[in-house]
Amino acid sequence: MKSKRATKLFVLDTNVLMHDPSSLFRFEEHDIFVPMMTLEELDNNKKGMSEVARNARQASRLLDEVVSSGGADIQSGIALSEPSRQLASGRLFLQTEAINGVIPASLPTAKADNQIIAVAIHLSEKFAKRPVILVTKDINMRIKARALGLEAQDYFNDKVLEDSDLLYTGARELPADFWESHGKDLQSWKQETRTLYRIQGPLCAELLVNEFVWQEGAQPLHAWVREAGGKSAVLETLTDYGHQKNAVWGITAKNREQNFALNLLMNPEIDFVTLLGQAGTGKTLLTLAASLTQVLEAKRYSEIIITRVTIPVGEDIGFLPGTEEEKMTPWMGALEDNLDVLNRPAEDAQGGVGDWGRAATMDLIRSRIKIKSLNFMRGRTFLNKFLIIDEAQNLTPKQMKTLITRAGPGTKVVCLGNIAQIDTPYLTEGSSGLTYVVDRFKGWLHSGHVTLQRGERSRLADHAGEVL
Questions:
Q1: Is 8 helix (H, G, I), strand (E, B) or coil?
Q2: Backbone angles phi, psi at 243, to 5 degrees
Q3: What is the pLDDT of residue 332?
Q4: How far apart are CA 53 and CA 105, in angstroms?
Q5: Is the pLDDT of residue 406 over 80?
Q6: DSSP symbols for 296-338
Q7: Residue 339 contacts residue 291 (beta carbons within 8 Å)
Q8: Maximum mean pLDDT: which of 102-116, 130-144, 262-276, 424-438
Q9: In terms of DSSP bridges, do strands 212-215 and 221-227 run parallel, antiparallel, or are they unpaired?
Q10: Residue 111 vs residues 104, 114, 115, 116: alpha-carbon distances, Å
């Protein structure tokens, strides 16, 4: 192995490969080293149908491909440029010698983590002039490695951003002098019930398509960007879903962000919607109201499909009997709660129809809602459906891609979640699949995003969200 001062040597832990099998090709010009224990752990985790097992098999296949293409000389490293299609220009090294007696006696050598740390220590002594860095998603392993004088870091490649405060919110407040600086050569015209403005000014370069803009004051403006890029932009006024005449399944928008969300949910031109927000901001309620209106009244979609990740907050409740729908029922308590709210306005409007009318409406609603498990999504295609992905913050970017690519012609996909409540191990706010799609889809003509700010559940829930 040649010592190159400019490049680093990254030692990969198993969980990095199991999190993202393509991580082999994500270190650009730097070299990577795969210890024998990492290969052993990949082998131990390859059985089963879980995402982890699938990734372990994929990582093994990629390693096999690289090693097969590299010829017989593994000692001097295998060039990654060809297998990675020029994504990486470094080399891959595999452990070809036994490494013993490097770590302190206090650390048990039988543990896989400690053996990988031992390899990293050995390499840092062997190549003293070269940075040797251990890459792992295991926090305790990073702490141990640093305590032993090693450099260790998390796998950052799939992190969309370091700070969740920088995540695109989907809405921006216009400055007070907006019309003075952007009103020159202003063009305005009507299109059906909406007013459009073509503006020019410095802010136009920053605006994204389908971003919401607002300004309060004497002449309030709530609009969204229909065209952007360059020196001019087109703003279109919104439908006011806060007014009772525009109520969606009896529900009206309680605040500005809810109005933005309903404009996205009710627009047939928007195929993909992401709604972020803490508990009680109305994500599920608004989405269900919009989906029921468009399935049962407008007949725009044939049915509603709801799915979510089945990760318990506490202890798991064990085996559940029944069909796929019945097994998913305990995870869908939020759906039941929201359906109760949505079924109440219909009863009140008809002057107290009573239990019969309410039960009939509920049966009709239930006949159009299908609850599906994520485990059986691969290979499916949804035609003309309204697909709701609840608790989307618990999905990895790869799972998110698998789900969104199920959408066939005429299907709308809505992702709901709160990135402050992630229950999946190894996922953080920066690497969640929800954060990933919000960032990747911003500015696309047929997608939109809103971060809901204000809780509307109750004063107790709002206060608990702030202080706890």
A1: coil
A2: -85, 140
A3: 56
A4: 33
A5: yes
A6: IIS--SSEEEEEE----SSS------S-HHHHHGGGGHHHHHH
A7: no
A8: 262-276
A9: antiparallel
A10: 13, 6, 7, 9
Q: Give the list of residues 6+ apart from residue 213 with CB closer than 8 angstroms, or none.
A: 171, 172, 173, 174, 207, 221, 223, 224, 225, 235
| DSSP label at residue 9 | E
Average pLDDT over the chain reads 81
pTM of the model: 0.71
Cα separation, 319 vs 397, in Å, equals 28
- Measured CA to CA in angstroms, residue 113 lies from 17, 44, 56, 153, 264 at distances of 14, 14, 17, 14, 47
Helices (H), 70-210: 112-126, 139-147, 178-182
- H/E element, 268: none
Q: Which domains does the chain have, with CATH numbers?
A: 9-153 (3.40.50.1010), 164-237 (no CATH), 248-467 (3.40.50.300)
Given a contact cutoff of 8 angstroms between Cβ atoms, the answer to whether 85 and 71 are in contact is: no
Task: For CA atoms 329, 332, 335, 337, give the dihedral sign.
Answer: positive
Q: What length is written for the chain?
A: 468
d(CA 255, CA 262): 11
190-222 pLDDT, tens per residue?
988 888 988 888 888 889 999 999 988 777 889
In the chain, count H helices and then E strands. 14, 18
Q: What is the Cα–Cα distance from 11 to 13, expressed in whole angstroms?
A: 7
> Which is nearest to 374 in space by CA: 449, 282, 290, 311?
311
Q: CA 456 to CA 416: how far, in whole Å?
A: 16
Alpha-carbon distances of 245 from 110, 136, 239, 250, 339, rounded to whole Å: 69, 55, 11, 10, 21
* Tokens linked to 217: 């004051």
Q: Sort residue 467 into left (φ over 0), alpha (ψ -120 to 50) or beta.
A: alpha
Provide the residue type at 162 as one letter: E
Please give the C-alpha separations between residue 427 and each of 125, 268, 355, in angstroms, as whole numbers: 33, 33, 45
Q: Could you tell me which of 18, 14, 9 has the C-alpha nearest to residue 111?
A: 14
